[in-house]
Design brief:
The chain has 6 helices and 7 strands, in the order αββααααβαββββ. With 211 residues, it is an alpha/beta fold. The strands form 3 sheets. Strands 2-1-3 form a 3-stranded parallel sheet, with helices on one face.
Length: 211
């Protein structure tokens, strides 16, 4: 089981989406949890076949106790989110919310955090949301890559925090890496995998300013 799955399995929630992975695939941290959903974009979280698809899916899995339940939950989640999403929110997600960076190094992270912000403002019941931001495995030419990644991370999280200003007392953002890096550079101008690591926390109830 992933650590986010263990958390969700330990807390009670009647929400359709207590756990969300903002990506095309469910994050491995949610492995072992049937309560998590993969939602890359709220505006596109729908069935491609339109109105006739739900009936076809229900018929297909009616006799399957496991897949039938999963299908019912998926259809209910789609219906709930699409009905809760206002026209203004849908337009914002499609064209991008003002204030978020849109350069190449942070565009994907920025769009993912806009989805997270909408889920929070919709009060959709999400207790834990995962967002990935790749490209940090800098074994070579780290000085050319790392500054842009850090700036993209900083600008995107800053815009996200401003976006959820009214809800920040109930939100904690954790930024962490899946692996550390060595302090000493290698011969390619990068750093190899190491054991040291760190975590950053941001939120209305975080007593920050310390290391």
């Amino acid at each position: 089981q992933g650590w986010m799955a263990r958390y969700l399995n330990a807390v009670e929630s009647n929400s359709y989406i207590p756990g969300v992975s903002v990506s095309a695939n469910l994050a491995e941290s949610f492995t072992g949890c049937g309560k998590a959903s993969s939602i890359k974009s709220l505006a596109e979280y729908n069935l491609m076949e339109g109105m006739r698809a739900p009936n076809l899916i229900k018929k297909m899995y009616r006799e399957d106790p496991i897949m039938g339940t999963a299908a019912e939950q998926t259809l209910e989640t789609i219906q709930y989110l699409q009905s809760a999403l206002t026209d203004g929110q849908r337009a914002d997600l499609e064209r991008g919310v003002q204030g978020y960076p849109d350069d190449w190094s942070s565009r994907e992270l920025s769009r993912s955090l806009q989805t997270v912000a909408q889920l929070i403002k919709m009060d959709a019941g999400a207790k834990i949301i995962n967002v990935d931001y790749g490209g940090w495995d800098t074994h070579e030419r780290q000085a050319n890559v790392f500054p842009n990644l850090v700036k993209g991370l900083s600008d995107s999280i800053g815009a996200f925090y401003n976006d959820i200003a009214a809800q920040k007392e109930n939100v904690t953002v954790l930024v962490m890496s899946e692996f550390g890096r060595r302090l000493r550079a290698n011969k390619s101008g990068g750093t190899d995998h190491g054991h040291g690591n760190f975590m950053m926390a941001l939120g209305g109830k975080v007593n920050g300013g310390n290391m």
